[in-house]
Each structure stands twice: as C-alpha cells, then as structure tokens.
Specification:
2 copies of one chain form a homodimer. By secondary structure, chain A is an alpha+beta fold. Chain A is built from 11 helices and 14 strands. Helices cover 34% and strands 24% of the residues of chain A. Strand 1 of chain A pairs antiparallel with strand 2 of chain B, so a sheet runs across the interface.
Chain lengths: 351, 351
C-alpha cells in the first residue's frame, strides 16, 4: 500500500526554500513541516506534543488568572531582545503582577509570506529560552501565514494562564493613603531601544531593552510583603505616567511621584531628549511598580534589592487621600506637575 | 486643581474620526477611548471590567483546557458570518472537542490603521453575540494597531480556557478498531463561502459558512455517549481529509470513510468544482467529527440528530486495524482511494 506521505515528498523537496510560503499556512503537509522543522524543536514538551485542539493542563488549585497580549514590535529584533523574548516576558509579567504563578503559555504566530525561516528560528529560540528562564511551558499554539505585504514579518500573540494563591488579592481598590510606591529600576529603556533601532538604525547607542520575565522577583517580594502588598503593575505601553494616572483615577487617590528617586540612565535620558520624549511616558518591559503598606515597605524593598532584577529598586513615591484622583510629580528642582496619561502614539509598535 | 482628562479633551475632539488611527494603539488616552467607544460596550462583563493585567477567573474544578487560534480571514465578512463569529466559535470548538466546558475567552485584536470604526463595531457585536450563544464570556483582551499596509484590516486572536470533567478522556490514542465515525452535517461550506466572497465577489451563491459554536452539541452527544465517545475534532483547515489522515497516522489505524454518507450541498459541490477543489479538503467551522464505540453509536447519533446543529448527522465511516495508519475513501461508484492530508495552500486565509 502506498503511504500518503511518500506521494507528496518530491513536490515538497522542490518547494523547500529558506522563506515562509503562503502554503505554510494552509493546515496541510507544509504546515506540519514548518512546525516540525522550525517551531517544535525549540519548544517541545509533553503537553504540547499531544497536539490536541486544546491542551490538557490537569487539575489546578488556587484561583485561575488569564491574560492575552499581541506583540507587533517593529523591528522584530532590537538591542536587548526580540519579539520572542518580549512575548513570553510580557505575558508572564501580566500574570505575575496580578499575583499569579504562571502555569502555561499559548503561542499564536502570524507570519508574513517571505519572512526568513532563519529569523523564525531565532525568534522561537528566544521564546524557548525566555520560557525556560520564567519556568513556564508553551502548552498550545497556532500558526497562520498572511500574504507578503499583509503583515510585516512576524506577530506573536501570547495568552497565559496562572494560579493565584487563594488568599492573595492585588487590586487598585486595595491601595490606601500612606501606601509606599516602589519601582525596581531605571525607566524608559525598552521603548527607547526599539525606537532607536527603528528610527536611527545607524546610531550606536548603549540603550538596551530591559525586557525580562519578572515572576521570580514578584514572588520574592510577595514572600517578603505578603498581603501588605496591595497592588502591582508593569509600566509597559503608556509608561509610568499611564500607570500612575490610571491607578490614581481608579483608586480615587493622589499618587505622588518623586522625580529624584526615579532612575533614568544617562544614555536613555539623552536618547529621550533627542527623540523629544519624556522617559515617564516610555514603555518598559522589565519593570514592576509595587504599592505596599508603609509598615512593610522597607522589608519589600530589601527583598527586591537582593534580587538581580531589583538591585536598583527604590521607593519612588507614595499615595495620599484626595477628593479626586490624580497623579502629581515632585520635580527635582522643587516644582510640582500633574502627570497625565500620554495621549496617543508617541511610540508606535514598541511591543 | 485641573483634572488630567480635561486638558486633552479638545485635542481628542479634533482628531476623532471614523477610522482607526495609529495613535489608537499607543496605550494612552486614545486607546482608552477606542476601547470605551467600540469594544467594551459590546462585551462588557464583571471580570473584564476589572481591567487587571490578568483576569481572575476564581477557583475551578476539573482539569484545565487551554487553546489559542489566530483569525486572519480575508475578507473579514463573508456569507454566514465574519471574523468575530469565527474567532469565538473557533476557540469554543477547540475547547468543546477536547471535552472541555468553555469558561472564558481572551481576545486579542490587531487593527490596521484606517480600518473603519463602524466595521470594528460590526465585528465586536458579532463577537458578543457568538459568545452569548456559546455561553462564554470575554474575560480579558488586548488591542494593537499597526500601520496602514502592515495588516489588512483586522486580525483577531482568541485564547480559551475551559474545564474538563475529571474522568473524561478524548484522545486519538483511545480510538480502537470498530469505532464508528459520525459527522454532524454537510462539508465544505465555510471555506467555499469565504473563497467565493474573495475571488468572485460578483457571483451570487447560496453557499454560506457553517460557522457556529458547537459546545451545546458536543455536551449533548457526550451526555448520550459518555466514555464510549473516544475522540472528537472539528475539521477546520485541512478539512475532513486532513483530520482523517492525521487521526489514522496518530492512532496507527485504518480510517475508512464512506463517500455516500458524507453530505455535500449541491451548491457547495458546484462551487468546489468551479474552483477545482475537493470538498473533503475544505475547511468547516461548524462541524464535529466523532469517534464512538459501536455499542453507543446509534445513541450518540440520535442525540446529535435531535440538536439543531446535528440534524443532518450521519455515520460516515469506521475504523479498522492496520499495520500502518492511513485513511481510505470508499467512493460512491464503488472504488477506493487513499485520502491524504492536503499539501499546502489550496485555500489561503479562510480562517
């Protein structure tokens, strides 16, 4: 009996090239080959290898956390990372800041026809390495191909599930006047690294993206602070401005930031000046902003400082009662200004 | 004290237009407006409205199922549905065929600059209606905007979580010789409806997509068949050919299909002939293929026939022992042929 696979083999060899073809997305033999050659070798694990329509993650305890994020960063590779690292870290961090232990990632890949397969390997390798670093597995996935010119290169979409310990609650509505605000390091580097790579590819800069999975840091700080930690968020799109303006509005409190305590590396400051941007508005991908009751602030700060991703942690502000929620910056020269959510697209396609 | 929001209001009014702007994706005030005006009104619910980085779905019992799918269908609207209905039904069905009760959907939206906001409303309305039909909620989401020409219109990405009752196991490796194969209706309609809409927009055809959430049908058939149901899958990309060739290979069995029992509507048959396609290879979005032990086949078939989405259900084949897994079609004129997984891109961008 002739076997199905052997019939089409010569046609496949003839077509095998070094770029993504539209036919790679048809759900047929070529899709299988694309996955077998360029996806599974990087991220193989027992659950993914089952190749069911949905993965079976088994029984779980705790509350279930669920998130999704699309990554359309341009260029797909930038100093300090690439879309693969960004997609895993971004979703791990969305879980981590809600207090969830990341359990599994679902990975959607949208490829443009013509995208070099070697670049796909680079991205998938980065996905795998970052997932390993964050101790999370890729449990399920999907790959689509769109025509040349219908997407630029590669988009990744990551959904994540995690489990939140039963008694842990992190929510803007738990933030109270007096809470201290802690940030784990300097701001602005991710957005600036991507912008420089895109807008000024010939400029050599030392600014590199801070993209990193933060779950081991958040677990360490929660172990130190327990339920004294009232809220966490990662200042990604919209930057620290967007985060604090949003928190102030939702908690209906005054969020006060001390400019002197917010680190900006000199190279990042220079790049932001050159691009006409405020570092407060720029996206970070390896920063976490923590609200904590004052009695536990020093303990949480120490726990953060003893972690490699928190060594530059500092108390950057506090929360006050207010009749109307807003965010205020105490500037280094002694002034005060309102911090607003950035308006629109100062930094397109940075994640 | 001047409030943050009031400062930017005039600028926003001046910019407010009827199409998606790049600035809608910046994570700032314009992103909030886009979501507030065109997304949340359609899909609002208590969990989504919390707007946390990850949604808290609470404690769950049973095993956890997890899936993701990207939807890049072109055109975004087609006879019988649109990308919104497709995205919800597709992910609900991936959960349903693994035996999971859909719990929540995470929705990623990638918009191209210039996409009409009225069309976004149509899509989101369709998302909401289909989610309601499937009794599943949109728990979390993410919206990105890419430049004009970098994506054609709108891509949706849906991840889903569900719970599988502890003792339920549906897996190719549970399929045994003698199992009957049941399909819930005619094939080929989704792929053909999309292809006709794209390639022959001036041709009027009665072929409409079968896109529908199947979870109430699968729950009904599982209630009838219990653990006698050994495997289910929805024949989407790759069609019934791809599904059966894959099942045969993974279960290492001979999958026998009876052409006379596989329904193809005359209009679909005509369209497939015109496009030079085999209905067996064409994607469906409202069909489920069920393997069931022979003793329960009639009972499962009756349960399916009494459901609106299963009224045309039929036993379309069976499984035999084989030294090497393959799929064989018994044709209507008494012949036999091997059914292969389609090679590549006969039907690009149909989901």
């Amino acid at each position: 009996m002739t076997q199905a696979n052997s019939i089409a083999a010569p046609a496949y060899s003839a077509l095998k090239r070094d770029r993504v073809l539209l036919a790679h997305g048809g759900g047929g033999q070529l899709t299988d080959e694309l996955l077998a050659d360029h996806v599974f070798p990087h991220i193989s694990n027992r659950i993914l290898d089952d190749l069911l329509d949905a993965s079976d993650l088994g029984r779980q305890s705790g509350r279930l956390a669920f998130t999704i994020d699309s990554f359309v960063v341009q260029p797909w590779q930038f100093p300090g990372g690439d879309v693969g690292r960004l997609a895993i870290a971004g979703t791990v961090n969305d879980l981590a800041v809600t207090g969830a232990k990341p359990l599994a990632i679902a990975l959607g890949v949208i490829l443009a026809e013509g995208f070099p397969l070697a670049n796909l390997d680079t991205v998938m390798n980065s996905v795998a390495a970052t997932a390993k670093e964050a101790n999370v597995r890729i449990a399920t996935g999907d790959t689509k191909v769109v025509g040349h010119g219908h997407a630029d290169g590669i988009y990744l979409i990551t959904a994540g599930v995690g489990t939140i310990p039963t008694k842990r609650r992190l929510n803007p509505n738990r933030v109270r006047p007096g809470d201290k605000l802690i940030l784990n390091g300097p701001i602005g580097e991710h957005g600036l690294a991507v912008m420089l790579a895109r807008e000024m590819p010939d400029v050599r800069s030392v600014v590199t993206s801070d993209v990193a999975p933060l779950n081991s840091l958040t677990e360490a700080l929660l172990a130190a602070g327990g339920n004294n930690v009232t809220f966490m968020r990662d200042p990604t799109r919209g930057g620290l401005s967007g985060l604090c303006a949003d928190l102030a509005q939702r908690a209906n409190l005054r969020v006060v930031l001390e400019e002197s305590q917010i680190l900006v590396h000199p190279a990042a400051r220079h790049a932001a000046d050159m691009l006409g941007l405020d570092p407060l508005d720029i996206a970070n991908e390896g920063k976490v902003f923590v609200a904590v009751k004052p009695r536990a602030a020093e303990k949480v700060l120490r726990a953060m400082k003893s972690h490699p991703l928190g060594k530059d942690a500092a108390i950057v502000g506090h929360v006050e009662a207010a009749s109307e929620g807003f965010c205020e910056l105490h500037t280094q020269i002694g002034g005060r200004r309102i911090v607003q959510k950035p308006y629109g697209e100062q930094l397109p396609r940075i994640c």
